[in-house]
Amino acid sequence: MGSTITEKILANASHKKAVSPGDFVVADVSYVMAHDSTGPLAIESFYKITDKVFNKDRVIIVFDHFFPAPTVAGATMHQKSRKFVMDQKLSGFYTNGVCHQLLVEKYISPGDVLVGADSHTCTEGALGAFTTGLGSTDIGGAMATGKCWFKVPESLKFNLTGSTKKGVYAKDVILSIVGDVGAAGALYKACEFTGDYVKNASVSSRLTLCNMAIEMGGKNGIVEADQKTLDFLEGRTGKIFKSDKDAVYEDQYEIEVANIEPQVALPPVVDNVETVSAVEGRPIDQAFLGTCTNGRLEDIEVATRILKGKKIARNVRFIVSPASEDIYFAAFEKGYLQDLVKAGATICNPSCGACVGRHEGVLCEGETCISSQNRNFTGRMGDPKAEIILASPATVAASALAGKIVDPRDYV
Amino acid sequence: MRAWKFGDDINTDVITPGRYTVTTDRKRLGEIAFIEYRPEFAKEVKEGDVIVAGNNFGCGSSREHSPVAIKAAGISAVIAKSFARIFFRNSINIGLPLFVSEGADKIDDGDEVEINIKSGEIRDITKGIVLKAKPLPEFMQRIVEKGGLVNFLRSDGYDNV
Question: Model pTM greater than 0.90?
Answer without folding.
Answer: yes
